[in-house]
Amino acid sequence: EEYEPAYGFIATILYREKNDIESAEIWFKKAEKANCLFAPVAYEYGMLKYYERRDYEIALRYLLKSAEDDYELSYGVIGIIYYAEKHELNNALNWFRKAEKVNCLFAPAAYEYGMLFLEKGDIDQALKYLLIAAEDNYDLAYEELVKIYHESGDHENEKMWYKRIEEETIS
User: Does the N-terminal or the C-terminal CB of the chain have fewer CB atoms within 10 Å?
Assistant: First the structure.
């Protein structure tokens, strides 16, 4: 006899540990059909849909499902999708704030949060979040920091972050 609540965890292992996207998706669908797509599993399925399948609409549906059950890891990714894919700035801001409030604003979300502030012309807030991303070795933030420091005339910080880019390129 099968234990249906395990389906989602099998899917997660196949996705995260084995990088077997096809098999993982089969198990995620089985979990959903068995009504066992619990918050952590819905989050993982949303991540697969977004990062592997590039289907942000379906990913958002699963991530929002996990967020409904207060699965805090989903908040930043939801913010990313609202900003980078749907360009809904207010929704993105709300989700980034939620992620930050619960200490789940990880580098990719901090980067996008910074880019949102950059787009709005709030350089101080943009710097704050881009630095958070960069300090977590999120290299996309390095280039933005170089540009911001260059434009502001802060050549010392510009050189420092440019050097970081060179170091990343060499290693």
Answer: N
